[in-house]
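Quick one, probably user error.
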């Protein structure tokens, strides 16, 4: 899932620095002049295997999600036997160049966005601390000075780029320091292993043409690769690099490079959580069958009903209604998103073992025909034959996203109802009720309810734990949901043999 953090675009004012959706010093590469390096650091020489899989991480230190991706990739370097290339970029310039408008970048639910940052920090075990003004303070800064500093480090002392990047994130997001100031940059350099002389050398090079050109080249390169935010990760296992956006696609990256995803800390012992006995925890899924990501969320939650101590409530809504209430712009309408989303859907469907097949005309299906008719049909079933709602929903997804059928037609609705176990009489009854005021009002009520809880898209999941329900958006937050429920996350198919993180 893509998420939004705020940054500064020079000439445009404050704009987000990551969009909707972690340790040891690196070895030094050879440099002719090593007089500024401390002996322990100099002793660590790099060795790059020729058969390693190349992975590139493009990042901006004003983005907390970039920090999560950075730490995870470094933890997995030896486990996956990869050659990791770090590339600082100016996200603000990427946003400006691809023509994104401020309206597209604004978080639709700022409170959820901040809570998601906190949850991810806990999940990834990254020491990020958000105080009242941390988010606005860090993301309101121009990221040019710290990224020029990192680029100079990369040119002069490439073996220290990893730790210098980590120290900058620590300064900004843990210590709440101004990473645009000379004093903080100097402290970062020292903490990363540079001597005072080396720090001075790096700072001097930040104003040199070669440093500026390298940062501009990294940024331009990412733009030409049709990226739209950070972190952006490229794997080089095929003729053409594969792009992954965000800090929530590591399971897909592992699949792409033929490796295993073992959770955010591959060396940590698996958490042993015992499902608590007693009252089940209520979990609500707001969904629209027009959304393939909602299908993934639906299948995972229904699979976990037998493994988690939850009481799952399915509530059909109108995605367009939720989006209108929140002022959301469809992801596919954002620059560079549509081509990436097509690939992401195919990868995610394979990961979740969902038989998705891309429709021939997605725009016609989603934005012209829409989901009003099937959503009313499901709402009628939920009131008349609630035990059939799960399977009726599944059959509609199979029809539209599995066989490219028109789920607004009577024929397809009837076939879905029959496949769900309804009799012809029950289907006729549901169709008749679908056009009645009570059903229309129920669908509107569920949609308004989702919006009231802060939803801005689907799938939206509400975990009713404690005094206040917790909101989760997307089909990539199940590890965080499991953490909230104090249940084990066993991957997309918990009942499968050798289910793992």
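Nope, works fine. Designed sequence:
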């Amino acid at each position: 899932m893509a998420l939004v953090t705020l940054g500064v675009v020079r000439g445009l004012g404050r704009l987000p620095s990551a969009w909707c959706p972690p340790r040891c010093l690196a070895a030094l590469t050879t440099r002719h002049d090593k007089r500024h390096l401390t002996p322990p650091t100099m002793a660590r020489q790099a060795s790059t295997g020729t058969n390693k899989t190349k992975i590139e991480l493009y990042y901006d230190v004003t983005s907390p999600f970039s920090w999560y991706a950075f730490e995870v990739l470094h933890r997995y370097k030896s486990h996956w036997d990869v050659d990791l290339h770090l590339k600082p970029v100016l996200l603000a310039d990427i946003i400006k160049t691809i023509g994104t408008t401020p309206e597209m970048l604004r978080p639709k639910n700022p409170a959820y966005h901040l809570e998601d940052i906190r949850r991810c920090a806990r999940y990834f075990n990254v020491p990020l601390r958000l105080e009242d003004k941390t988010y606005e303070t860090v993301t309101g800064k121009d990221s040019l000075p710290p990224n020029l500093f990192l680029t100079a480090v990369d040119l002069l002392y490439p073996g220290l780029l990893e730790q210098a990047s980590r120290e900058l994130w620590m300064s900004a997001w843990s210590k709440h320091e101004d990473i645009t100031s000379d004093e903080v940059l100097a402290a970062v350099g020292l903490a990363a292993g540079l001597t005072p002389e080396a720090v001075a050398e790096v700072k001097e090079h930040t104003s040199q043409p070669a440093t500026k050109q390298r940062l501009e080249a990294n940024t331009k390169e990412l733009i030409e690769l049709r990226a739209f935010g950070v972190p952006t990760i490229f794997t080089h296992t095929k003729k053409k690099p594969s792009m992954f956006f965000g800090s929530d696609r590591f399971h897909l990256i592992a699949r792409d490079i033929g490796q295993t995803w073992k959770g955010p800390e591959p060396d940590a012992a698996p958490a042993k959580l015992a499902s608590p006995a007693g009252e089940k925890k209520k979990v609500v899924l707001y969904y629209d069958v027009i959304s393939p990501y909602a299908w993934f969320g639906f299948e995972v939650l229904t699979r976990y009903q037998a493994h988690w101590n939850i009481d799952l409530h399915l509530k059909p809504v109108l995605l367009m209604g939720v989006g209108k209430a929140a002022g959301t712009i469809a992801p596919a309408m954002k620059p560079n998103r549509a081509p990436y989303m097509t690939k992401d859907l195919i990868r995610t469907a394979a990961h979740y073992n969902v038989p998705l097949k891309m429709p021939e005309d997605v725009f016609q299906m989603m934005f012209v025909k829409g989901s009003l008719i099937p959503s009313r049909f499901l709402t009628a079933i939920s009131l008349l034959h609630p035990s059939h709602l799960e399977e009726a929903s599944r059959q509609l997804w199979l029809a539209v996203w599995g066989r490219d059928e028109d789920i607004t037609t009577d024929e397809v609705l009837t076939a879905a109802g029959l496949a769900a176990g309804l009799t012809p009489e029950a289907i006729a009854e549901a169709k008749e009720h679908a056009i009645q005021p009570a059903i229309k009002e129920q669908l509107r009520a569920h949609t308004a309810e989702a919006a009231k809880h802060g939803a801005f898209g689907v799938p939206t999941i509400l975990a009713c734990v404690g005094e206040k329900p917790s909101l989760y958006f997307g089909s990539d937050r199940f590890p965080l949901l499991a953490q909230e429920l104090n249940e084990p996350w066993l991957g997309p198919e918990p009942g499968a043999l050798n289910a793992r993180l």
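Residues 1-49 have pLDDT under 50 and may be disordered.
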